[in-house]
Design a protein that fits this description.
There is one protein chain. With 307 residues, the protein is of the alpha/beta class. It has two domains: 2-161, Mannitol-specific EII, Chain A, CATH 3.40.930; 176-306, CBS-domain (Roll), CATH 3.10.580. Helices cover 38% and strands 23% of the residues. The chain is built from twelve helices and 14 strands. It has helices at 30-45, 50-63, 118-129, 133-140, 145-155, 165-168, 182-191, 212-219, 222-225, 237-245, 268-278, 297-306; strands at residues 7-11, 21-22, 67-68, 72-73, 76-79, 86-98, 101-112, 158-160, 176-177, 196-200, 206-211, 261-263, 282-287, 290-296. The longest helix has 16 residues, at 30-45.
């Protein structure tokens, strides 16, 4: 999957100096360690308005959790007043208290506003290098900044050359099997906020999509839309006909085999291109033919502009 994305020559630790690392920090509350790291970075690098940056990071924390698996947190903010990213690191054996659970490693990241990919590149780099819980424990036990620097320099922690589709996708929350009935689709569209659902075969391969708009199209075929006078169907007679047959109508009658898709290792910019080319709000992420995830336009825009 995303491990197929080549690494660049840029090391993550190159954005952090030894003075930006605090080992066995005494703070426990998340807000306190964030404030400490922000003031450490701004003091070391002459960055203005530390309290404003603290406020920006804490405001970002309220939007969604920045806690990763294995006790790692990546609080961050996008700033217009800096020219390059900065990273500060804090470790703790006892752990810091974050809403999503105990955290033993904190990577505070300040990112220039005009570098939207950097944070996602950092997440990919950390997810790859800190995949094993033992790696987190070893680093959390470090007692000196030299140990932390050696850990990352030895590990060769590099940013990926680009963010890929796997970095912006989420697992599909719901799917339909190709042998499902029209009733199954109607149930989803009327009880959830899904407006499009992927259809998979028994192996999990993507074979098509069904959409709420296609369902309406079945109820109101084109010849009805050309009628100037819709009074003969003003009581939704065509919808009633669909309801009468919903149990016996196969999903294939409204399924489309035309949909936007990319492979898991495709550059994420390819996702954006598919949104634009096909004028859709959903792009499916495949591993060969198997459905691995989905990217909605809303999720994509959030990760690029606001994550």
């Amino acid at each position: 999957m995303a491990d197929m994305v080549p690494s660049s020559q840029t090391k993550l630790i190159s954005f952090c100096t030894i003075n930006d690392i605090i080992c066995q920090a005494p703070q426990r509350e998340s807000n306190d360690i964030i404030r400490t790291l922000v003031y450490r970075l701004t003091g070391n690098h002459g960055i203005r308005d530390p309290q404003g940056i603290v406020d920006a990071v804490l405001e970002r924390e309220t939007l969604s959790s920045t806690v990763m698996p294995n006790g790692i947190a990546v609080p961050h903010a996008r700033l217009s007043g800096i020219e390059r990213p900065y990273i500060a690191i804090a470790t703790s054996r006892e752990g810091f208290i974050f809403d999503a659970g105990p955290v033993y490693l904190v990577f505070l990241i300040l990112i220039p506003t005009e570098q939207p990919a950097f944070f996602l590149q950092t997440l990919r780099s950390l997810a790859t290098s800190m995949l094993e819980e033992d790696a987190t424990k070893r680093l959390a036990a470090a007692t000196s900044a030299d140990e932390v620097m050696r850990f990352f320099k030895t590990g060769g922690l590099r940013l990926p050359s680009y963010i890929c589709a796997a970095d912006v996708m989420v697992p599909p929350k719901i799917t339909l099997r190709e042998n499902a009935s029209l009733k199954d689709a109607i149930d989803i569209f009327t009880t959830t906020d899904h407006e499009e659902v992927p259809v998979v075969d028994k192996e999990g391969d993507l074979v098509g999509v069904v959409s709420a708009s296609a369902l309406v199209g079945v109820c109101l075929p084109d010849y009805l839309l050309w009628m100037d006078d819709l009074s003969p169907i003003q009581n939704f007679e065509p919808f009633a006909e669909v309801l009468r047959k919903e149990h016996s109508t196969w999903l294939s009658e409204i399924m489309s085999e035309q949909y936007a898709y990319v492979q898991v290792s495709s550059p994420a910019i390819q996702v954006a291109a598919e949104f634009a080319r096909q004028n859709t709000a959903h792009c499916y992420v495949l591993k060969d033919k198997h459905l691995a995830g989905v990217v909605t336009l809303r999720t994509f825009l959030h990760k690029i502009f606001r994550a």
